[in-house]
């Protein structure tokens, strides 16, 4: 029974190293592919996320999963999350881990190169606009692909405070009449 539940210190170290390696690999893939990987999961995306989890779990725990190995892997992931939270507070950490928000629409104009960069398909953008209650592109002031993978839709009407566009890639493409004067 003991061999089914517990692992040796060497096995525990192997679980930690495998878990750290898989975690860093996943962070790298998300950084390369962008936050689109985790946003607005379609059925295909959900299958991919489940497969990713399965691969990470299998690689972390090895051929014969054990309770202790699972606890070590889970603890390692939680520690990595905590460390990443601290690193993101540092300027270089935020630059390494977090993507910039990207302008997808300036007024009613779709910015195709930004759509491609974010891996957002026209149908997905149209869906986000409908969810925001947009009935016509002329109602749009700006659409921003956020670092989290969410899409923010800002309506025409009230002018946008330039502070809200600070750090947004492509903010200079917004027509000046959509922005309020900086106070």
> Which stretches are low in confidence, meaning pLDDT under 50 for 5 or more residues running?
none
Distance between the termini: 70 Å
- Number of DSSP strand runs: 4
Work out the count of structural domains. 2
Brief characterization of the structure:
The chain is 52% helix and 10% strand. It is an alpha+beta fold and 183 residues long.
Write a structural description.
With 183 residues, this protein is α+β, with helices and mostly antiparallel strands. Helix content is 52%, strand content 10%. The protein has a 4-stranded antiparallel sheet with strand order 2-1-3-4. It starts with a helix and ends in a 28-residue tail after the last strand. The mean pLDDT is 82.
List the helices and strands and how they pair.
Layout: H1 2-5, H2 9-33, H3 43-61, H4 67-89, H5 91-97, E1 102-106, E2 109-110, H6 112-118, H7 122-131, E3 140-145, E4 151-155
Antiparallel strand pairs: 1-2, 1-3, 3-4
Helix pairs in contact: 2-3, 2-4, 4-5
Give the tags.
single chain; 183 residues; alpha+beta; CRO Repressor; 2 domains; four-stranded antiparallel beta sheet; 7 helices; 4 strands; elongated
